[in-house]
Amino acid sequence: MERNVYLKKTEWKKALREFTNGFTSCFPLDSEIVPVRDSLHRVTACVVTSLIASPAFNSAAMDGIAVNAKITFEASPSAPKRLIVGMDCDFIDTGNPLEDTYNAVIKIEDVVIIDAKTVEVKYAVPPGKDVRFKGEDFNAGDFVIGESHLIHPVDIGAMLSCGVFGVNVRRKPRVAIIPTGSEIVEPGGTIR
After folding, report:
1. What does the H/E/C string look like for 66-93?
2. What pLDDT, in 10s, does the model give residues 91-124?
3. pTM of the entire structure?
4. Are 40 and 153 in contact (CB under 8 A)?
């Protein structure tokens, strides 16, 4: 008995070309706006830009005390500087906004708490120490994600932090699989 061999083989590059030529009218796919929280593994349809500055204000990068750095310039281990809470400094947590009168943060591990109103620091800090400045990550209008980008979890975080809550993405393609060939048998048919 002679083996049944497929007589009409198409070289794979030609088959792929013929297959994709059938889709030329639908590429690129249309777009739709989806909530950023639902955009994981979708593909951006256009460039995403920041709507607001991130962070939106100067904030503490560490838990500690907010100070005007100038007040600490004379502090040293041999001559610690005493500060009055509410006058020279304020306690602050990571991410909290920095008041305009302060320009540095001293991390809590480097602060000696004397009593409820007095703290002591043993080191001088420069302006900007442990401060996240307004717009440090993004300013309004800054590029965040490019067009045709596959969205990952980090991208979702970046978009949310810069005020983007809806993102323009490519629609998901609709795909149908059509099995063909004489070996296909209708349900209930005779299997040979």
Report:
1. EECHHHHCCCECCECEEEEECCCEEEEC
2. 999 999 999 999 999 999 999 999 999 999 999 9
3. 0.67
4. yes
